[in-house]
Amino acid sequence: MEGKAPIMRRSALAAIAAIGSASLLIAGCSKADDNKNENGNTKSAGANAATKGVVNASDKKGGTLTYELSDVPDSFDPGNTYYAYMYNLSRLWARPLMTFKPGAGEEGNTLVPDLAAGKGVPSDGGKTWTYKLRPGLKYEDGSPITSKDVKYAVERSNFARDVLSLGPNYFQQFMADADKYKGPYKDKSAKGLSSIETPDDTTVVFHLKQAFQEFDYLVAAPQTAPVPQAKDKGVDYVKHIVSSGSYKFQSYEDGKQAVLVRNENWDAKTDPLRKQLPDKIVVNLKVNPETIDQDVLAGKAIDLAGAGVQASTQADVVTDPDKKAGTDNTFGGRLVYMAINTKVAPFDKIECRKAVQYAIDKVSVQTAEGGPIRGEIASTVLPPDIPGYAKSDVYATSGNKGDVAKAKEQLKACGKSSISTNISARSDRPQEIDAATAIINSLKKVGINASLKQYPSGKYFTDYAGVPKFTEKQNLGLIMMQWGADWPSGYGFLQQILNGKAISQSGNTNLAQYDNKDVNALLGKAIGTQDTTERNSLYTQIDKKTMDDAVLVPLTYFKVLLARPQNYTNLVSTAAFSGQYDYLNIGVASK
């Protein structure tokens, strides 16, 4: 999922949440009520404490929890989102079949049943998966949640791409008979998609066209959170979402604010994961990034995006021992990269793409992003904390500072002495803009003249970078991107950015529009391979093939530097959501 994930969402998932900086101190967990300073405020538990355990553990109820976001999310609709932070937050009102256990590091990657009573039961060699729902599940209005609502949720989110295009389309790609189904807004029959069966109100059976050995991870996406068909309004469902979680919407103002309150029909007996601590949860949108940092440091808000503090704030917190003690620095299973659009000339030619690869001074990009504390220089598609990673550097340059001579040599082989193109970045992400500017400076030295085009992150995929026709019309040959795995495997990382079948006309995340038959075949083979070691070796092959084709420029293996709001409880940095704090059970220390 887009680190935004990313997929979304996205991004996102890592084998373990690594410690980001050796200079930061490690501290254990602390309880909120036993961790006060002389002013009565919660003391810091120490740097990186939330990457090792839960900080300010508490079951105290009450108070208002505030999230702030610098732009707007793609959507609050669980079936129409792909930002990692929305996968994280949406679990408050939308319970998927499976989810991830709140916990630090590797523990945060543990799959646990959510709406389902247990993990999926595979049969037919992994082509059929059966789930039983927990008994007694209810929506916010007290009506029962049934297996038909899960089936409908998958149908609307994956088979109506002209209406809901923002999430991934795994189910559309892998369900049997998917090509025969037109989606619930066009096909009004009661049967719906034939390959999802609901033999009774608590059983849902998925029939796939091929074996999918990681299907439990797939149903952890919010696309399996139930939606009552009678209440669905298509793209307008976001205005009146029916909650299946511990919180429900009290109000929603598009582009401004969402307010959540306790769902009185949520029953803790049906939900061993959620605690329902705050009285109210407020999500404020379009807040200045620097203001967000100030509010977080003051203990008044959480940065919803979970992308870390701004560069100016970073300089302040890392040089102040007291402030540094309240930070968490970790890998997030993410890659910061630049996609080279293979459908925009002259980047349809591999030599021109290789010229870009050799030209970029990655050290200058790393510096623009905030230095080593914000990411290690990358040379592969898979980050080191995703299975299938193998160290490699196809376009190595001295000191990672680029090689003008090799770049010009490739440019000449491409039949060009110069190139004019555009590069896109998100307008509300200063570090991404700075990184793109550093790239522009590198490219200029070899005769590639790139102009920066800025677009808001909330519409980046729906209207701009994720719309192939737009990118081709606007000569967007280079596209800034950050990506995290949809689940902790090579497939969960690679599928939506490399498979030709994942290319969408809106909400597209395969920004290079890369459609290589060998890579597509390897991805299909991998997900059907039961042996984990063999499956991971296939992911390594895919990474190598992609780099040989020069369609992505890995820039840095992302690391996040989070400021930890001291007045909030149950803070734990989870690998499951790109190193963000797990949003499921955060509470308020002082009402």
TrEMBL record:
Keyword Signal attributed: yes
GO MF term list: peptide transmembrane transporter activity
GO BP annotation list: peptide transport
Keywords: Signal
InterPro entries: Peptide/Ni-bd, SBP_5, SBP_5_dom
GO terms under cellular component: ATP-binding cassette (ABC) transporter complex; periplasmic space
Keyword Signal: yes
One Pfam family here: SBP_bac_5
Solute-binding protein family domain residues: 110-502
Domain of life assignment: Bacteria
Span of the signal peptide: 1-32
Protein name according to UniProt: ABC transporter substrate-binding protein
The organism's taxonomic lineage, starting at the top: Bacteria, Bacillati, Actinomycetota, Actinomycetes, Kitasatosporales
